[in-house]
């Protein structure tokens, strides 16, 4: 695994690349990709960073694991490749945007259009073995992505963190809430959404209101 990550992030995260855990993680990921089918494609592992540079980040959405089905994962949390059926969580995200902002339900589930506007779509674990959810957890990725969150918290001001579900909410402890905005809700998965913990959170309109308060361009969701 060659760390070909955008220069704006490389300068911020270079200490992580020198640590023992990252060397071990690199060895593990290389071995997995050689022996098994894994997602996303190697070139897309750091896609979230390539499409949303450090200084351009305005919003952070945290996911847990890449999708593990064929052709789904593209390196951005909750996002799928062009032409791929929308997974249930993404369907519920689009439905909430529809009711919150009156934006029509989109054909494409590729969220690169958000990333290019300053939304960091960060999974806690950046790789997964095909058809084995969580198979690359606890191998070092979480330590790396926690460092990403801490770095953003320390070096930036006024970011908006959207923490959906119990796993993401635990990351609030890494964020300076005096400097940043933290919006929390249930997860958009059907299990949580159908219990009333997701729909109606209005996170998309709230995010844009907060951006406008800082004279920043709102996100075209």
UniProtKB/TrEMBL annotation:
It is found in: Cytoplasm. InterPro entries: UDG_fam1, Ura-DNA_Glyclase_AS, Uracil-DNA_glycosylase-like, Uracil-DNA_glycosylase-like_sf. GO terms for molecular function: uracil DNA N-glycosylase activity. GO terms for biological process: base-excision repair, AP site formation via deaminated base removal. Its main location: cytoplasm. It is an enzyme of class 3 (hydrolase). The active site is at residue 65. The keyword Hydrolase applies. Residues 50-211 form the Uracil-DNA glycosylase-like domain. It holds the Pfam family UDG. The keyword Methyltransferase does not apply. Its EC number is 3.2.2.27. Keywords: Cytoplasm, DNA damage, DNA repair, Glycosidase, Hydrolase. Excises uracil residues from the DNA which can arise as a result of misincorporation of dUMP residues by DNA polymerase or due to deamination of cytosine. HAMAP family: UDG. Belongs to the uracil-DNA glycosylase (UDG) superfamily. UNG family. This is Uracil-DNA glycosylase. The lineage of its organism: Bacteria, Pseudomonadati, Bacteroidota, Flavobacteriia, Flavobacteriales.
């Amino acid at each position: 695994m060659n760390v070909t990550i955008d220069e704006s992030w490389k300068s911020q995260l270079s200490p992580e690349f020198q640590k023992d855990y990252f060397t071990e993680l690199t060895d593990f990921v290389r071995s997995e990709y050689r022996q098994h089918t894994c997602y996303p494609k190697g070139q897309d592992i750091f896609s979230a960073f390539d499409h949303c540079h450090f200084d351009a980040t305005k919003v952070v959405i945290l996911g847990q694991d890449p999708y593990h089905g064929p052709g789904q994962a593209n390196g951005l949390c909750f996002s799928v490749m062009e032409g791929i059926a929308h997974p249930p969580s993404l369907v519920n995200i689009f439905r909430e945007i529809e009711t919150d902002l009156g934006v029509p339900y989109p054909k494409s589930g590729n969220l690169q259009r958000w990333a290019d506007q300053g939304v960091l779509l960060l999974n806690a674990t950046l790789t997964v073995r095909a058809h084995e959810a969580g198979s690359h957890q606890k191998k070092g990725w979480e330590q790396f992505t926690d460092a990403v969150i801490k770095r953003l918290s320390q070096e930036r001001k006024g970011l908006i963190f959207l923490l959906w579900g119990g796993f993401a909410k635990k990351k609030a402890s890494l964020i300076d809430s005096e400097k940043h905005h933290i919006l929390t809700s249930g997860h958009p998965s059907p299990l949580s959404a159908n219990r009333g913990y997701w729909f109606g959170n209005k996170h998309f309109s709230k995010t844009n209101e907060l951006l406008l308060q800082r004279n920043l361009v709102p996100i075209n969701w």
